[in-house]
Specification:
This protein is α/β, with parallel strands linked by helices. The chain has helices at about 10-20, 60-80, 85-110, 115-135, 175-185, 200-215, 230-240, 255-265, 290-300, 320-330, 350-365, 400-405, 420-430, 445-450, and strands at about 25, 30, 40-45, 50-55, 145, 150-160, 165, 190-195, 225, 245-250, 270-275, 280, 310-315, 370-375, 395, 410-420, 435, 435-440, 460-465, 475, 480, 485-490, 495-505. It folds into 2 domains: about 1-275 and about 485-500, 3-Layer(aba) Sandwich (Aldehyde Dehydrogenase, Chain A, domain 1), CATH 3.40.605.10; about 280-480, Aldehyde Dehydrogenase, Chain A, domain 2, CATH 3.40.309. The protein is about 35% helix and about 20% strand. It binds 2-aminohexanedioic acid. The site of 2-aminohexanedioic acid (UN1) has 10 residues, from loops.
């Protein structure tokens, strides 16, 4: 495993200055105005070098009330702005993000720990979803149906829904918000964002970037809001609040179960994007070089902290040993270090708790009978002072191990052997989660078998592409304990709108459906 000495992050204070991040920042914003929050102050430390980046005065329950009340008022206006005009605002937000891409990408990297390239990629996802939403603003189409009754017309239309509550996770501090917020905006909804308490400065920076666009376009104050606070003051209110018809939450399955329960009790809508336990099947005639690159990016990229990270490799027995060797060699060349250093491929984990989860999971693997092939150490010494750097781990296991059935948000890759394609698909599906999956094969029979109704049971199933790095154009989400929600592209927008079926009688008679006679 080769390691790098971290380079000092010399220009980060200039980046913070350009993004408008101060030493102490308000955690609540109504679009262009920042509230004078009085909640508990929380400090944000970089997992890259352990330095304090800035502090946040969190929102209180009273701030939450102010925001929700304003957002309700804003909805009454915003829903009447024609959708293409709402799209025009989103187009300008996309441009503001283009201008801030380097700086925001750097802050994402520094506050969250993913490498700068991935930070840039995350901002690019925001720009892409803006472009997608602009086009969508002219295509919020409903169907027209033929009525069974003469001189009747039937169609459906989609109306704005209301306030959309977005609860985002630390691993995508800005992109997942934009998937929700940009669609919600063109749909005529207002947005209230509760970011992860681990990466609040990224959320604050996003709001500073878009404020100018909101101001110049006279977007009603309250249309796009930030409410950075703890669960007690903000999160729990949010879930139970009938004024928020849709909660879109990204996080662990445990968090998601709670969100689903509380929102479900009031029959609100929830869009859940939760844990994954993503596998790649590698068959005998796979292009192994291609598979290798996909596996390494999927398993160690973002330091194993994507919901789509590759967690399990299901390898055919005839190529198992050879592929394992290639993998171990590749892992040796992966540079671990400061995420802002261009040579780095693996940055730190988000915090020391994540390091504990990593270490505990490895101990569990051993306890259950698995063996560690490489990695699994905590790095220390110059450049690693934050205590969050680990060496990505490869372990040989059996699929039924409790620890393998569980999502550990860290770079641990489990190797599992198979002999028939049926068995490989069974192993791939035999976990509680169902987000992303992939097969590397040049056999049409095998790949089609993998994509068939009795193939992969995941929301995402790829051929000759890894499990992570989905494009925004497709619907993103998964089945089983992943929560069933779909975000981002395709027709995911429909959940952000209120669907209405309209039947119009332009005749002079009143025929009843199903031919029912009811004469008075
Ligand atoms: C997530 O990990 O929460 O497919 C989202 C990917 C990204 C999104 C991941 N486009 O890896």
């Amino acid at each position: 495993m080769s390691t790098l000495t971290a380079t000092p992050v010399s220009d980060i204070s200039e980046v913070l200055q350009r993004l408008g991040i101060e030493q102490v920042n308000s955690g609540a914003c109504t679009g262009t105005q920042w509230l004078n929050t009085t909640g508990e102050t929380i400090d944000s430390f970089s997992p890259a070098d352990g330095q304090l980046i800035g502090s946040i005065k969190q929102a209180t329950a009273a701030d939450y009330e102010t925001i929700i009340a304003l957002s309700q008022q804003a909805f009454n206006e915003w829903r009447l702005v024609p959708a293409p005009k709402r799209g025009e605002v989103v187009r300008q937000i996309g441009n503001a993000l283009r201008e801030a891409k380097d700086d925001l990408g750097k802050l994402v990297s520094y506050e969250m720990g993913k490498i700068y390239q991935e930070g840039l990629g995350e901002v690019q996802e925001m720009i892409d979803i803006c472009d997608f939403a602009v086009g969508l603003s002219r295509q919020l189409n409903g169907f027209t149906m033929h009525s069974e009754r003469p001189r009747h017309r039937m169609y459906e239309q989609y109306h704005p829904l209301g306030i959309v509550g977005v609860i985002s996770a630390f691993n995508f501090p800005v992109a997942v918000w934009s998937w929700n917020a940009m669609l919600a905006m063109v749909c005529g909804d207002t947005v209230v964002w509760k970011p992860s308490s681990k990466v609040m400065l990224c959320a604050i920076a996003v709001h500073k970037i878009i404020a100018g666009v909101l101001r110049e376009n006279n977007v009603p104050e309250g249309t796009v809001c930030l409410v950075a606070g703890n669960s007690k003051n903000v999160g729990d209110n949010f879930l139970a609040d009938k004024r928020v018809p849709l909660i879109s939450a990204t996080g662990s399955t445990n968090v998601g179960k709670r969100v689903g329960r509380i929102v479900g009790e009031r029959l609100g809508r929830s869009l859940l994007e939760l844990g994954g336990n993503n596998a790649i099947i590698i068959t005998p005639d796979a292009d192994q070089e291609m598979a290798l690159r996909a596996v390494v990016f999927g398993a160690v990229g973002t330091c194993g902290q994507r919901c789509t990270s590759t967690r399990r490799l299901i390898i055919h027995e005839s190529i198992y040993e050879a592929f394992k060797q290639k993998l171990v060699n590749a892992y040796k060349h992966v540079k671990i270090g400061n995420p802002l250093n261009p040579a780095t491929l693996v940055g730190p984990l988000i915090d020391k708790n994540a390091v504990n989860d990593f270490t505990n999971a490895i101990a569990e693997v051993k306890k259950e009978g698995g063996s560690i092939v490489c990695g699994g150490e905590l790095l220390s010494g110059p450049g690693y002072e934050s205590g969050c750097y680990v060496t990505p781990c490869i372990a040989e296991v059996e699929n039924h191990y409790k620890i393998v059935q569980h999502e550990t948000f860290a770079p641990i890759l489990y190797l599992i052997k198979y002999s028939t394609i049926e068995q490989a698909i069974h192993l791939q599906n035999d976990v509680p989660q169902g987000l992303s999956s992939a097969i590397f094969s040049n056999s049409m029979r095998e790949t089609e078998r993998f994509l068939a109704a009795d193939g992969s049971d995941c929301g995402i199933a790829n051929v000759n592409i890894g499990t992570s790095g989905a494009e925004i154009g497709g619907a993103f989400g998964g089945e089983k304990e992943t929560g069933g929600g779909r975000e981002s592209g395709s027709d995911s927008w429909k959940i952000y709108m209120r669907r209405q079926t309209n039947t119009i009688n332009y005749g002079t008679d009143l025929p009843l459906a199903q031919g029912i006679k009811f004469e008075i």
